[in-house]
Amino acid sequence: xxxxxxxxxxxxxxxxxxxxxxxxxxxxxxxxxxxxxxxxxxxxxxxxxxxxxxxxxxxxxxxxxxxxxxxxxxxxxxxxxxx
Length: 83
What we know:
The protein has helices at about 5-20, 30-60, 70-80. By secondary structure, it is an all-alpha fold. The protein folds into two domains: about 1-30; about 40-83, no CATH class.
């Protein structure tokens, strides 16, 4: 990522934070919780997207067999173990 891309991203993030702050009755120290929640959801979505194809392939492969699992159990199995 180039320096100008990082600067553009930073500007967009500050604009989004200003919009959130302006459109809520939250005090500046109170809107961290919803922002952090959104960041966590995006992080989770990105992690799932990295494994989605493998999860779906395993789910379809196991359907109709005795080893069939629901997709949630397969997704948990594919979750990377933190270091």
